[in-house]
Write a structure and sequence with these properties.
mainly alpha; DUF7041; DUF7041 domain-containing protein; single chain; elongated; 202 residues; 11 helices
Length: 202
Amino acid sequence: AVKVPPFWRENPAIWFSQLESQFVTSGIVQDSTKYHTVVASVETEILSQVSDIITSPPNNDMYKTLKERLINIFSDSEERRLKKLLQDVELGDKRPSTLLREMQDLAGNRVGDELLLSLWLQRLPTQMQAILTTSSDDLNKLSIMADKIADVTSGSEICSNHVKTKVPETSTPYDCISNLQAQISELSLKIDRMSQFRRSRA
């Protein structure tokens, strides 16, 4: 029997991937069976968002139609993902490598490694930044190094110096985008300086 996990609003695509793995191991291939498994398992509050499909399912591709609609409804827009990447994610109690993976997921293919590195470093403690910026390793190796530094300094007074910039509630979408563009420009200057520093050490 398929054990359907609770619907994951924050990442419906991953939720469907989990579910489809169970379909494979359970030998479920029929479209209607997949569709009814979702309908029978997902909370009513979620299904209310797709009531038109539930009350009048299409004759073909019922599961695919339901899946695509739920992913579209609950997935963040491009602008929202960019805003999260630039402003909302913080180190908190996470390990540096966990933070990096979260940021990579938000960035997708839209942000280059240099910009992502700069954004990630800004969320780390100042002392850790000072150590990592002297290394020319790639992001994954830097995240491993950051975890080791965090393990060594655990319990010390090192704390994150990241200050979250909030967009005023009264801002318009245009203001929000302009604000994000200004931050990207500022980060690009920092990246240029960092790249020059790395080349001088090469």
